[in-house]
Write a structure and sequence with these properties.
heterodimer; A: MetI-like fold
Chain lengths: ~260, ~240
């Protein structure tokens, strides 16, 4: 993109040709908006419902952020277990990763929603344990298993010669990990980690199935309340659009990072 | 069914309630659910591979009017939740189709799940195949062209066979993801194993026990797919090509 900008006006016709499809689509949209005269009774309820929809989407994002945060912490701990030279320590980590990577997301969400209690007793007080938090846990479990795998992959991708060189310089195992291997892993883990975040964000859509008032649940309530064909089409299109608007930049940035990493 | 009795007794001793297995009706509905999931898996696997080949062919066709919309479709499919896509298909498209042709809508929820998951995973297959097609050496293609292969023949006889070998590990990975994704069918009340379990545990309140069974079932399916994939990989291996 930067090179295109620096080329300036000389590249303009080229750019026109490259983005012909997008320009056509935009023109078609404008023509439709101008000539097709969008029916007011369809757009007015959408405008009315948009605060509720955005609130639902905010909950989706909150769940995804908490889940990836928890999952990362847990996953790094399990990844560290998996690096241990002792088989006894590696076994639980391996089991964890296998169990939660091979389970369908939906089944895990049902699992955490129905197996955990709806309130927890802490020091004589009953703390509520809301459904959205259970869904967060249900998403954090597979996230942790995937982070552990990403971590393992990143450590394995560092050439073995670096270990040998460091050992010959008199570093201990822990020192090598902390000072040499892990700093390099952070950069390598970033693209797959962001990929995982996008997957988890899309997984939050499943929260609606266990009764969390997220974006999709709100959309369903809205369609049942308004009960108009045009509105139903429009609202599901906007749900799709909202998720796309959030996830697409993440995936573009991931691809950019991957490409930059590949050329190094 | 003495071994079933023994199993229920033994698990009961561990504190797990598997008594629904002794009830012929509930056991039947659970097994039927497993069978539906199996059917879903087989249908979507075939469908997704067909969609994947078609989309990959469109992506590498070199015609902008074909590759452009396909790329748009791929990006939208990859970056939106499958559940929303399923709702868009089942609640929106299905409604529109019903309105146009009246009561006799030929699309069942089962068909919609197969269509949506096939398209969704087909996109991922297409990306893997595209990478495989791009990994086919240029000289091979030039050799094929000089032997008088047309574009279509070249795609079917040279590029795809080599691309499949290159892409097989990611294809198998996608298929395992696909197996897991079929649990989504329960969202629109297709009677798969998850849906059958929901019906049972709302009656008996034995979520944990059914969860274990479901996870074992999906684990077994993934394992079988993985083994088949590995076997195919070994069978198709060409010395000096691919991984």
């Amino acid at each position: 993109m930067a090179t295109e900008l620096s080329l300036g006006s000389r590249a303009a016709p080229d750019r026109l040709r490259r983005h012909a499809g997008k320009i056509l689509a935009l023109a078609a949209l404008l023509v439709w908006l101008a000539a097709g005269a969008p029916p007011r009774e369809v757009f007015a309820p959408l405008w009315e419902w948009s605060p509720a929809l955005l609130k639902g989407f905010a909950l989706n994002i909150l769940i995804s952020l908490l889940a990836i945060g928890l999952g990362t912490l847990l996953g790094l701990a399990i990844g560290a277990l998996n690096l241990s030279p002792l088989r006894l320590l590696r076994l639980p980590g391996w089991l964890w990763v296998q169990a939660f990577r091979n389970a369908p997301l939906l089944v895990l969400i049902y699992f955490t929603t129905y197996v955990f209690p709806f309130e927890i007793r802490v020091a004589g007080h009953y703390l509520p344990f809301p459904d959205w938090l259970k869904v967060t846990l249900g998403l954090a479990l597979p996230a942790s298993a995937n982070v552990a795998e990403v971590f393992r992959g990143a450590v394995a991708s560092i050439p073995a010669t670096q270990w040998e060189a460091a050992r010959s310089l008199g570093f201990g195992r822990g020192q090598i990990l902390r000072a040499i291997i892990l700093p390099q892993c952070c950069k390598r883990m970033l693209p797959p980690w962001m990929n995982l975040y996008a997957v988890i964000t899309m997984g939050t859509a499943l929260a609606s199935l266990v009764g969390v008032h997220d974006l999709i649940d709100t959309a369903q309530i809205a369609t049942n309340t308004v009960n108009r064909v045009g509105f139903t089409v429009l609202i599901y299109a906007s749900v799709l659009g909202l998720f796309f608007a959030y996830c697409y930049p993440i995936s573009r940035f991931t691809r950019y990072l991957e490409r930059r990493h590949a050329f190094q | 069914m003495s071994w079933l009795d023994a199993f229920v007794q033994w698990t009961g001793w561990l504190g797990l309630d598997y008594r629904f297995l002794l009830d012929a009706y509930e056991r039947g509905s659970f097994v039927a659910g497993a069978w539906v999931t199996l059917q879903l898996c087989l249908c979507t696997m075939a469908g997704s591979l067909a969609v994947g080949v078609a989309l990959a062919a469109a992506l590498v066709s070199g015609r902008p009017w074909l590759a452009g919309p396909t790329r748009l479709f791929v990006e939208v499919t990859r970056n939106t939740p499958t559940l929303v896509q399923l709702y868009c298909a089942f609640l929106v498209l299905n409604m529109l189709i019903s309105e146009v042709i009246g009561g006799a809508n030929p699309f069942t929820p089962f068909a919609w799940v197969v269509i949506v998951i096939s398209l969704h995973k087909g996109v991922f297959h297409a990306e893997a195949l595209r990478a495989g097609i791009e990994a086919v050496p240029q000289v091979t293609l030039e050799a094929a062209t000089s032997l008088g292969f047309s574009r279509r023949q070249r795609l079917w006889r040279v590029e795809l066979p080599l691309a499949v070998r290159f892409a097989l590990p990611s294809l198998v990975n996608n298929l395992i993801e696909l197996v897991k994704m079929t649990a989504l069918a329960s969202a629109i009340a297709v009677g798969d194993i998850t849906y059958a379990s929901i019906l049972i545990w709302t009656q008996r309140d034995n979520v944990l026990e059914l969860m274990i069974l479901i996870l074992l079932f999906f684990g077994l399916l993934s394992f079988v797919v993985n083994c088949l994939g590995r076997g195919l990989e070994a069978r198709l291996r060409m010395p000096g090509y691919g991984h």
